[in-house]
Amino acid sequence: MHNIRAYLAIQLCTLLFGLSALIGEHVQSEITAVVFGRSLFALVLLSGLLCLSDNVRPTVPWRDKSKLMLNGALLAGHWFCFFMGVREGGVAIGTLGFATFPAFVIIIESALANKKLAYLDMVLMTMIVAGVYILAPVNTRYADAMNGLLWSLAAGFSNALIIIFNRYIPVRASATQSSWWQCAGCLITTLPGGTTDLYYSNGHDIVSIGILGFLCTGLAYWMLTWGLQRLQARTVSMMIVLEPVYALILAWLFLNQRPDGQTIAGAMLIISASLLSVLLPARGR
């Protein structure tokens, strides 16, 4: 029963991550306002969670705080690219382009280790590249969609940098503390433009950005942390990779953005490769 609750929490977390794409496309404010507001509202919720926590929290050294805030600056760039991808190319292209991040992780890790790509890694990268090629619009009338794909690929690359950063640069902080300081770094990175842009946003956009920060960031990351404490990281990763699936379903239901056969084919290749990138290490890859 305990594991069932953890599974449900991770599924809801993934759904909220997918919902963030719809909100990003729907909001008319400047992207800097979206990124700044998302960080601000997430900080409010995470601060409350830290205050309510009964666990003994480690004291975070300033050196580790600076590392986390630097990663927060990367997070700001990632969110900016992601929302630009969604706004320019739509939910499908924006989320599927982002889902290519496992390929970038493979490339970066191979470069850091100064090793050649393994055969299975090359197969996975071929699947991802093929999926992106299928998604890429060949008609010049769809220049915005192509721009969206490029922005979403940049979001995938920046997400890979964040993953590498978290994996190879250890810090003394709980998961909630880590999320708090990263959001703080993201907030500072978007100053002062984000403050001004958020101030001039309309009320409807501010409510949407608040939902994005509270639910799709603060609450989602808290549930992700809670689930990781009870489930294997590989299991959680497999579910998180399905974020584009949730985004496509939500866009179909609420925005009437029905994916065509080309989009579905590209999605199947990219998502399958992403799932395999999680499964194969468990089999001795």
Number of helices: 12
Share of helix, binned = over 70%
Q: Flag low-confidence runs.
A: none
Strand share of the residues?
Answer: under 5%
Shape: globular
Structural class determined from secondary elements? mainly alpha
What is the radius of gyration computed over CA atoms, rounded to a whole number of angstroms? 18 Å
Number of β-strand runs: 0
Amino- and carboxy-terminal Cα gap: 32 Å
The SSE string, one letter per element, is HHHHHHHHHHHH
**Major β-sheet annotation:** none
Q: How would you name the oligomeric state of the polypeptide chains in this document? A: single chain
Average pLDDT: 85
Give a verbal description of the structure.
- With 285 residues, the protein is mainly α.
- It has twelve helices and no strands.
- It has helices at residues 2-26, 31-52, 62-98, 101-113, 119-135, 143-168, 175-189, 193-199, 203-228, 233-240, 243-254, 261-279.
- Helix 1 (2-26) packs across helix 3, helix 1 (2-26) packs antiparallel against helix 9 and helix 4 (101-113) packs across helix 6.
- The two termini are 32 Å apart.
- The model has no long low-confidence stretch (mean pLDDT 85).
